[in-house]
Amino acid sequence: MRADLAAIYGEERLPRYTSYPTAPHFTAAIGPDTYARWLAELPVAASASLYLHVPFCREMCWYCGCHTQIVRRDDLVAGYQRTLRGEIALTAEAIGHRIKVEHIHFGGGTPTIMAPDAFAELMATMRQEFFVLPSAEIAVEIDPRTLTADMVEAMRLSGVNRASLGVQSFDPVVQRAINRLQSFAQTASVVELLRGAGIEGINFDLIYGLPHQTMASCLETVRRSLALAPSRFSVFGYAHVPDFKKHQRMINEGMLPDGLARHDQACAIANALKEAGYVQIGLDHFARPDDAMAVAFEQGTLRRNFQGYTTDRSEILLGFGASAIGHLPQGYVQNEVQIGAYAQSIAAGRFATVKGYGLTDDDRLRADIIERIMCEFGADLGDICARHGAEAGAMLKSASRLKPLISDGVVRLDGERLAVAGDSRFLVRSVAAAFDAHLDPARQLHSRAV
Q1: From start to end of 366-416, where are the E strands?
Q2: Cα 305 → chain centroid
Q3: Could you tell me the end-to-end alpha-carbon distance of the chain, in angstroms, rounded to an integer?
Q4: 154 phi and psi angles, rounded to 5 deg
């Protein structure tokens, strides 16, 4: 990474481009009736992916940017599980046929907060309402501090084959500052449980830019993580947005590393993982060379959705749960964020869609360009524009933010082929933003670019 470029571009607030247009541009013009119509229009031959959001945790981690709440009563979680099952049935009825499913992802919050039998029941409902392919990837996000052996067994019996473990940092000073005490022994024990159940696809989530974090503590966390040999790493920069996430006010801003320190931490983690044999994938993922994600990156088939980088090639993502976002060929839909209002809608037999976005042809063109930049650090603008019936020259002319990036050596343009320079890949979001027709730099809605 070039420190001079980190200083120039690193403070920009930019989307992570898990969608285009991004969620702040969703409007109430898209509601339950629109979603029902879009579902009914899905072709019989289509395949879909499912995302289930479980917005509950036992305690709040102060760095968290997710839609979640603290819950002590298990009956509230059980009631929510029943609501999810109702939404699944409602969706299947609207589609009108048993759509094929290739990926299932449980996010949160803490999905494993559900009782083991409730989790198994939820999986059974999905298999009943949809045609879950035998080869489907079924992934669950896990808090290692609360996972039980009974839940691991329920996951095994339900066909779960990938687990994503929140690690963040093994530094106890950092852990205290973010209200997440999690020992290495706890994490190692969960990895052993998962592998004993045949769940070999294991991801670790790490974060840099946390309070009191240093380059040395980041490297120590990587060293200890490597001892457990996960198949993938996700490495995110902490997004401090206390105006949107009130609990982040518990973090002492004076203890947060500055932009240059964040840059150094990200660089150190990336170098350590690559030296250990992991392939760097896009902005923030690393995988073993034989992992499906590394293979997709090598073959140019890597995709990006609301869970980040993915091997999922489906154009349909059905979201379930409070705040869940779905993506259909026609556009995006998002559910009610408030759990009570979400549950009331589903109980009344109507979708909980409160906002969304209907895609235009220009949106689809720009989404393809942005996805290729985010996934491959480059794009063949001529080829992509031709497939959409557009002119690459006109697209380049509209991308005024691209000019300084070219002048600063971040981007190379060879005719209609765009490539991000090898030492500037940490600014891939800045390059993608050059093609974002909806971006408003004055609105500080996103995390820092570095």
Answers
A1: 378-380, 411-414
A2: 7
A3: 10
A4: -65, -40
pLDDT of 127: 98
Which of 160, 21, 89, 23 shows the shortest CA–CA distance to 318?
89
Q: Tell me, what CATH number does 53's domain have?
A: 3.80.30.20
Phi, psi (deg, nearest 5) at residue 227: -65, -20
Answer yes or no: do 167 and 72 share one domain: yes
Confidence of residue 383 (pLDDT cuts 50, 70, 90): very high
Asked which of 325, 351, 370 is the last residue of a domain, the reply is: 325
For residue 404, what are the CA distances in angstroms to 400, 401, 410?
8, 7, 9
CB contact at 8 A, 126 and 104? yes
Asked if residue 281 and residue 261 are part of one domain, the reply reads: yes
Q: Same structural domain for residues 176 and 315?
A: yes
Same domain, 307 and 450: no
Structure tokens at 239: 């997004």
Note the pLDDT tens digit of each residue in 247-277.
Answer: 999 999 999 998 889 889 999 999 999 999 9
Residues 169 and 258 placed together within one structural domain of the fold: yes
pLDDT higher than 70, residue 355: yes
CA gap 162, 312 in Å, rounded = 14
- Collapsed DSSP state (helix, strand, coil) of residue 134: strand
Distance CA 431, CA 375 (A): 12
Query: Which residue type sits at 423?
Result: D
pTM tops 0.70, yes or no: yes
Residue 295 CA to residue 311 CA, distance in Å, equals 9
What is the three-class DSSP state of 282?
A: coil
Q: Give the domain range for residue 140.
A: 21-325
Strands, E assignment, 177-278: 201-208, 232-237
**Do 305 and 429 lie in a common domain?**
no
Nearest-angstrom CA–CA distance, 311 and 290: 13
The identity of residue 121, as a single letter, is E
- On whether residue 95 sits in a domain, the answer given is yes
- Asked if residue 170 and residue 283 are part of one domain, the reply reads yes
For residue 4, what pLDDT is reported? 79
**Distance of alpha carbon 292 from alpha carbon 290, whole angstroms:** 6
